[in-house]
Amino acid sequence: MSCAVANPPVEVRVIESFDDLPDEIAQVLVDCKFTDLHHTLDWFRLLAATALEPGGLLRIYWVAPSGQPLLCVPCLFTSASPPQRLAALSNFYTPLFGPVGNHGVTPDNVHRWVQHVTSERPRWDIIDLQPLDPTTAFFRLLLEEFRRAGWWVDSYFCFGNWYLEVAARTFADYWVGLSSRMRNTISRAQRRLERMPGFQLAIVTAPGPDLDAAINAYQTVYACSWKQPEPFPHFIPALCRLAAERGWLRLGVIHLDQQPVAAQLWLCDGQTASIVKLAHDQSLVKLGAGSVLTAALMQYVMDIDRIRIVDYLIGDDAYKREWMSHRRERCGFIAFNPRTIRGVAGAIHHFGGKIWRGLAPLHRPDAPVAHPSTRPSDPPVA
């Protein structure tokens, strides 16, 4: 789709490839202090290069008023069929969406961006951005500005997010706070593994031959696990290499007799350790290698990295609450254009479904509800 904009605001620009970002804009986005590595320019470039659905086309907006913070919102759309839906550059690998660097989120910048998006031609029928943190200024401003533009807006539940507040604790402090059942189970599993031939536990953090071997080991374990094959097979290896270059990588692998039996991919940005992928050989599940490896990585990020948060990212899997201390929710923002037939049809389907199910009123950002287009069929991240 080629959008001709009627009287576009001077400060808003749109491109269809990260390669087309002007050098000065790219440098600002690289240099800005990020609050979550999933908001970095590196992350969005990686998604665009390795994990786009067939037919997915980028639409990257930036708002750069003179002398003001830069706002960049990476989006995508699918040209194959109606409705014309503008979505976040995100997928099932994305635990949290936001502007690049979470930078430039001011009322004026978001107003300019919304004004631009709602004036594009052909008109968008639906704007759908997820997953978002509903407590942020970006989420609140989206609701306010699209409603002000006359669109029908709502929020919806995406998934639960379990995390651990580490504060200044060491791993020893954390360990004594776990249930006695967990401590005993992990200790027994570790002693059992250490007595087995060729036991080796390694955590790889940097580029080099060890990284290549660890990626191969991860892929071997993943193929023997309970998980479905990766829909984008190049994404995880590329993420490991990018993370190693940036100093984020914590890739743990357990070998027995030179065969990998468990692997976990964590990312550490200095303040937060994110648990991205877990896998173990399903035929050896009774060994407990996965739990032993989780404990080892916990000890590494607490005692060596001195992180403040461990984040289990996506989903309410029962095992996560045994390791974590808190839960929050990630939500989606959706807006329907009342000036297009498909926008009205989408709104009738969305809000009519909520009324039919007897759910929340038209707009309750403090209590988002399930949306039929979200993640039930997506493969799990952890």
Q: Could you name the key traits of this structure?
A:
382 residues, alpha+beta, Aminopeptidase, 2 domains, 13-stranded mixed β-sheet, 15 strands, 34% helix, elongated, disordered C terminus
Structure description:
The protein is an alpha+beta fold and 382 residues long. The chain has 2 domains: 199 residues, 3-Layer(aba) Sandwich (Aminopeptidase), CATH 3.40.630; 140 residues, Aminopeptidase. It contains 11 helices and 15 strands. Strands 2, 3, 4, 5, 7, 8, 9, 10, 11, 12, 13, 14 and 15 form a 13-stranded mixed sheet that branches. It has a two-stranded antiparallel sheet with strand order 1-6. The protein is elongated, with a radius of gyration of 22 Å. The N terminus and C terminus are likely disordered.
> Which architecture of the largest domain does the CATH hierarchy give at level 2?
3-Layer(aba) Sandwich
Percent strand: 25-35%
- CATH classification class of the largest domain: Alpha Beta
Indicate the radius of gyration in whole angstroms. Answer: 22 Å
How many strands? 15
Measured as a percent range, the helix fraction is 25-40%
* Number of separate structural domains: 2
Alpha-carbon distance between the termini? 35 Å
SSE blueprint and pairings:
Blueprint: E1 4-5, E2 12-15, H1 23-31, H2 41-50, E3 56-63, E4 71-78, E5 85-88, H3 107-119, E6 120-121, E7 126-132, H4 137-148, E8 152-165, H5 171-177, H6 180-194, E9 200-204, H7 209-223, H8 235-246, E10 249-256, E11 259-268, E12 272-280, H9 289-303, E13 309-311, H10 320-323, E14 326-336, H11 341-356, E15 369-370
Parallel strand pairs: 5-7, 8-15, 12-13
Antiparallel strand pairs: 1-6, 2-3, 3-4, 4-5, 7-14, 8-13, 8-14, 9-10, 10-11, 11-12
Helix pairs in contact: 2-8, 3-4, 6-9
